[in-house]
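Side project, low priority. Logging it here so it doesn't get lost.
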Amino acid sequence: MRPEDLKPGVVVHVDREASVQFIVRPILFRIIRVGTARPDQDWVWMSGYQLNAAGDATERRDIYVQRSGLRPAVNRAKTPAGRTGSGPGSGP
């Protein structure tokens, strides 16, 4: 991910591509702060919340990861009808 994509509120999928500490158990992570990162450096400190499958924060964490290994998380926002995300069968 580009440095400008990592900002507060963004949810990313963190797995072994981002850091060896997530080889066995990947996580969803909502960013609340990104450490000063120069565009020429791939490793970055981030503060935020680990999320469960429902998108609820379960733990506050600080992680050190490679930007190139982070992926945007799939939109799991709940709709007013109680369904999650968007896709087939979730239309109006």
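Brief comment: The chain has one domain: 3-72.
Revisit when time allows.
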